[in-house]
Design goal:
Keywords: Membrane, Transmembrane, Transmembrane helix
Largest sheet: 2 strands, antiparallel
Number of domains: 1
Strand order of the largest sheet: 1-2
Family: Belongs to the myelin proteolipid protein family.
Subcellular location: Cell projection, Dendritic spine; Membrane
Number of strands: 2
Structural class: mainly alpha
Order of helices and strands: HHHHHEEH
Number of helices: 6
Main location: other
Protein name: Neuronal membrane glycoprotein M6-a
Helix content: over 70%
Strand content: under 5%
Length: about 270
């Protein structure tokens, strides 16, 4: 008898867990995890890759920071770092908004809190998210293309550095004079292979993160488009149900009126 009472006592908890699992928008959850992973990989590795680029420019290319009012390479890299901070914060918030939108499209939430998506406000929100996600998709495509440029450049330098020779006891990675740069007084440029290799792989990871963000945007577009299709079908079904209910009510009223008339005629 005690086992029966315990089973009954745990039954609502199990049903509640199953109901919570039914509420989760798994497609939006997967896209959000992929977006966060891609943005974190892009922002973290991109920031460290830019810092490594600054170190290489200052130590081996003798690039000095210009005055504040002058826009030089180092200042542009600092601006890119601030842009990375903004991208990380913006897409953290955007992922939360898309998750909330995904929760409101699930059947369990509609049953609990009403058909929010079928309202005019819900349809406008869905259309706005589709448009905004498509813009972000194009933006991430541009970011991916832009990130591939330093990867290509570092890959070429890294390939040259694989054929390292020894000149005056130093590891010769790159001699700018073979490209027509520098003069007789410019010594042979020697790069540390480890630092160049680390910066190159950080840019590769940043490129992979940007690609993951692009895939997440595509997944979000598929989810939002499917939700929009559901909204249209739900609106049509609701209108059909309203018309059907109205016609049935009119038929019921007509039959009631005729029944009353016949009853009055008999009496």
């Amino acid at each position: 008898m005690e086992e029966f009472n315990i089973t009954i006592g745990h039954l609502p908890i199990r049903l509640c867990c199953v109901k919570c699992l039914g509420v989760l928008p798994y497609a939006s959850l997967f896209a959000t995890i992929l977006l966060y992973a891609g943005v974190a990989l892009f922002c973290g590795c991109g920031h460290e890759a830019l810092s490594g680029t600054v170190t290489i420019l200052q130590n081996y290319f003798e690039v000095v920071r210009a005055p504040v009012e002058t826009l030089d390479v180092l200042t542009m890299i600092d601006i890119l770092k601030y842009v990375i901070y903004g991208v990380a914060a913006a897409f953290f918030v955007y992922g939360i908004l898309l998750m909330v939108e995904g929760f409101f499209t699930t059947g369990a939430i509609r049953d609990l809190y009403g058909d929010f998506k079928i309202t005019a406000c819900g349809r406008c929100v869905s259309a706005w998210f589709i448009m905004l996600t498509y813009i972000f998709f194009l933006a991430w495509l541009g970011v991916t293309a832009f990130t591939s440029l330093p990867v290509f450049m570092y890959f070429n330098i890294w390939t040259i550095c694989q054929n390292t020779t020894v000149v005056e006891g130093a590891n010769l990675c790159l001699d700018l004079r073979q490209f027509g740069k520098g003069g007789p007084g410019w010594p042979v440029l020697c790069l540390i292979v480890f630092q160049l290799d680390m910066t190159f792989h950080l840019f590769v990871c940043a490129l992979a993160g940007a690609g993951a963000a692009v895939i997440a945007m595509v997944h979000y577009l598929m989810v939002l488009s499917a939700n929009w299709a559901y909204v249209k079908d739900a609106c049509r079904m609701q209108k059909y149900e309203d018309i059907k209910s109205k016609e049935e009510q009119e038929l019921h009223d007509i039959h009631s009126t005729r029944s009353k008339e016949r009853l009055n005629a008999y009496t």
